[in-house]
């Protein structure tokens, strides 16, 4: 395990929030690095279900004035957002290191130690920008006899879902979009 240089700020997570913060820190000449476990910028968007679209128009989904391609009044899909984030990182030359953070501690001097499988980074401040729903919550709701069950994080498209009635639990953006899509091929109940 090797020690890396010390930064003023380490951002854990290279999605929208991490990149936007990185942009602001760079504008102020504050030494920082972004650590992200994904193999490329925007990958967390690419892994989501095939038909995912934003609920907000493209003109409201831009970071720091960086133009999002396409109709500004249209609703970008997941790949457009992934491409946009990757282009934003490149255009602004943001330092994203492809490393998974496995531990965050503080030393006796109150510096943060950010441990990855290969390095220990040191920082005065750390920002966790990994998103609110990084680990899906899958409650145990049946005894195994109720049939097929899938969490939205594993859902890609209707071909995964067996014939029959479908119950979708959760009426947030994801639940509503999936329910709308599945209602074309299944009898759907949204709870």
UniProtKB/TrEMBL annotation:
Keywords: Oxidoreductase. It comes from the Bacteria. Gene3D superfamilies: FAD/NAD(P)-binding domain. The keyword Coiled coil does not apply. InterPro entries: Auxin_biosynth/cation_transpt, FAD/NAD-bd_sf. One of its GO terms (molecular function) is flavin adenine dinucleotide binding. PANTHER family: FLAVIN-BINDING MONOOXYGENASE-LIKE PROTEIN (AFU_ORTHOLOGUE AFUA_4G09220), FLAVIN-CONTAINING MONOOXYGENASE. This is Putative oxidoreductase CzcO. It comes from Oceanobacillus oncorhynchi.
């Amino acid at each position: 395990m090797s020690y890396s240089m010390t930064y003023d700020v380490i951002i854990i997570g290279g999605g929208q929030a991490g990149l936007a913060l990185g942009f602001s820190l760079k504008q102020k000449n504050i030494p920082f690095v972004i650590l992200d476990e994904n193999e490329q910028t925007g990958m967390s968007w690419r892994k989501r279900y095939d038909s995912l679209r934003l609920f907000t128009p493209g003109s409201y989904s831009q970071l720091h004035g960086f133009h999002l391609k396409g109709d500004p009044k249209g609703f970008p899909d997941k790949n457009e957002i992934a491409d946009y984030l990757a282009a934003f990182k490149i255009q602004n030359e943001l330092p994203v290191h492809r490393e998974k953070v496995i531990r965050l501690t503080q030393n006796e001097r109150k510096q943060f130690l950010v441990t990855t499988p290969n390095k220990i980074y040191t920082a005065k401040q750390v920002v966790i920008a990994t998103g609110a729903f990084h680990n899906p919550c899958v409650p145990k709701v049946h005894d195994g006899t109720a049939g097929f069950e899938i969490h939205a994080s594993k859902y890609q498209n209707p071909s995964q879902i067996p014939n029959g009635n479908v119950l979708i639990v959760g009426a947030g953006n994801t639940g509503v979009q999936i329910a709308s899509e599945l209602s074309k091929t299944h009898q759907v109940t949204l709870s």
